[in-house]
């Protein structure tokens, strides 16, 4: 509906709201990552005029592709989960997510290997996974897995509305929300003060299963030995569905852009923003790298908060959020995108090859600031998914990834260190039975230094701050800032990293912005006639 300061009819209100959208400057969205795209879609659904400015040549942010031998390869996020986030986002604009991106459900969620003959698949069918674990590690562990699933589901249900869908809480407000939603037992069940790996030791006796489910901490760039037990909810998220997209994850970014443009959102690519300016105590302009001053009614910044703190968006924005709190940076990575022939190990779409000493691996990264002596390797075989023909003897598209420290600005690993890491990585795969024949042209390699260049002020950290300790949740900035009219979105803000979480952050930022604009309009009789749109 549209709100005015008079008793005019709804038809009049629509007229004046449309007139206000024409006459007032647009909302500027800085960055077309998934958080910025989500914010733009939400603003369009609320009737706001939106201009998106993106430094790169296409949307997606970390959800990027690289070309190897002419083949596009996903070189960022490869897992599509929490589909409901995007279904709700598209439905607000009368669109069907199914028609736009055609997601295909995976029957096998991931394949895991610890060495020759030690292979375990997780399936979309919970009982089938329990049976596989029982065969792999014994019937008792199969039963413990089912109990673990119940615990992960409870944690997710307790936190979805009070945390994932709500503005950034503080310890007291989150406790109050959880108790209001699930009672005191609900608060105790999520074990906020217990570390993830310790909780997994209570659930499983087999160290391989502790390692497997501990890996979920890396989904938010963290160590399972330091992250809270609440991250068990990731197991429930995957259990409710993992999908692949025809054309890769870039299909999602391109579809979000196209839907936004259909509803009037304007995009300007290769247009970096160097400053956010204020007038009268609130955001009034954004300034491009070329020096163009663009008027705006408000701004949503879809960049890592570290970029604001570093002054990369001007002196006014530098103090818009508190200084960097203690806790350091999340993980970075070294990735190899290649089109290669494989033999031996039967790859699925998602594959994980585990190191023999998980604790040492994270000590190498977080304490010694070096790449692991023996890394865990993630391999996304992007031509292996439902409906696709098996590659056979043909080259297939692979993304291989190992975790690394976010030292791209302080200790950029030289070519010798990267080459040595590559040798250890592919030797690890060979030890597990996977032989990879590299292409003549080599792979497209991305290092922490490269990620630091792509995402300034981060040092290559891919997930903002790490989720280490129970207070980590409250260290991430929320949607609002100290600068009136400036809002934040992206994986570095609440509710956290990952494609669906970043999308939720964009929605939260847009909704808070619209609330503030509406409040400002209703309290200012001298404002443009007609007020603003509200949900």
Q: What does it look like?
A:
This protein folds into 3 domains: 10-63 and 249-326 and 471-522, FAD/NAD(P)-binding domain (3-Layer(bba) Sandwich), CATH 3.50.50.60; 125-240, no CATH class; 331-454, no CATH class. Strands 6, 7, 14, 15, 16, 17, 18 and 19 form an 8-stranded mixed beta sheet that branches. It has a 5-stranded parallel beta sheet with strand order 9-2-1-13-20, covered by helices on one side. A 3-stranded antiparallel beta sheet has the order 10-11-12. The chain is built from 18 helices and 20 strands. With 535 residues, the chain is an alpha/beta fold.
Beta-strand residue percentage: 15-25%
Tally of DSSP helical segments: 18
CATH architecture of the largest domain: 3-Layer(bba) Sandwich
Strands, total number:
20
CATH superfamily (homologous) name of the largest domain: FAD/NAD(P)-binding domain
Structural class: alpha/beta
Computed Rg: 24 Å
CATH top level label of the largest domain: Alpha Beta
Report the sheet with the most strands, covering strand number, pairing sense and barrel closure.
8 strands, mixed
Concise synopsis of the structure shown:
The chain has 535 residues and is of the alpha/beta class. The protein is built from 18 helices and 20 strands. Helix 6 runs antiparallel to helix 7 (171-189) and helix 6 crosses helix 10.
Keywords:
535 residues, alpha/beta, FAD/NAD(P)-binding domain, 3 domains, eight-stranded mixed beta sheet, 18 helices, 38% helix, disordered N terminus, disordered C terminus
